[in-house]
């Protein structure tokens, strides 16, 4: 009986970790709203579970801020034709996405990116 109970407990713990480890974007972002920023990429981290683009852009008051734009995972981006050579630091981009629930955080969830210099664009699920 104890062995069966221990097995049940361990299986429960092992299967609950992956689902609880991933958050909902709606917990961090206002997914029903859109904002756009325009600026220069200073850093890109292609990784899992989410990639990040850091962009120097002006806020609503005209002050320059570094905005952290949360994007899809590197494997997902690769499926969509985006890789480490697609965007580079120094590229000027316009990013549209969902703003952070906390206005003091300069973060957003990427929905659409465009690079005006050559017309390259990307739109993910719920883009624009």
Structure commentary:
There is one protein chain. It is built from 2 helices and 6 strands. 20% of the residues lie in helices and 36% in strands. It is globular. β1 (35-45) and β2 form a beta hairpin. It has a single domain, classed as OB fold (Dihydrolipoamide Acetyltransferase, E2P) (Beta Barrel), CATH 2.40.50.140. The longest helix has 20 residues, at 2-21. Strands 1-2-3-5-4 form a 5-stranded mixed beta barrel. 17% of the residues are buried. With 128 residues, it is of the alpha+beta class. The protein has helices spanning 2-21, 74-79, and strands spanning 35-45, 52-58, 64-70, 92-99, 107-115, 120-123.
For the record, the count of structural domains works out to: 1
CATH architecture: Beta Barrel
The coarse silhouette is globular
The succession of helices and strands, N to C, reads HEEEHEEE
- Major beta sheet, strand line-up: 1-2-3-5-4
Amino-to-carboxy terminus distance: 56 Å
User: Which structural category fits the helices and strands?
Assistant: alpha+beta
Give the total of beta strands: 6
Q: What multimeric state do the chains show?
A: single chain
Strand percentage, roughly? 35-45%
Keywords, separated by commas or semicolons:
128 residues; 5-stranded mixed β-barrel; 2 helices
Summarize the topology.
Elements lengths: L1 H20 L13 E11 L6 E7 L5 E7 L3 H6 L12 E8 L7 E9 L4 E4 L5
Parallel strand pairs: 3-5
Antiparallel strand pairs: 1-2, 1-4, 2-3, 4-5, 5-6
In short:
The chain has 128 residues and is of the alpha+beta class. It is 20% helix and 36% strand.
């Amino acid at each position: 009986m104890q062995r069966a109970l221990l097995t049940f407990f361990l299986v429960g713990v092992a299967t609950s970790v992956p689902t609880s480890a991933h958050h909902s974007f709606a917990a961090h972002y206002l997914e029903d709203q859109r904002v756009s920023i325009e600026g220069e990429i200073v850093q890109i981290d292609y990784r899992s579970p989410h990639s990040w683009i850091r962009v120097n852009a002006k806020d609503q008051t005209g002050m320059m801020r570094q905005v952290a734009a949360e994007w899809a995972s590197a494997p997902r981006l690769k499926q969509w034709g985006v890789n480490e050579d697609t965007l580079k630091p120094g590229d000027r981009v316009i990013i549209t996405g969902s703003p952070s629930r906390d206005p003091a955080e300069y973060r957003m969830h990427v929905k659409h990116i465009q690079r005006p210099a050559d017309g390259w664009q990307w739109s993910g699920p719920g883009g624009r």
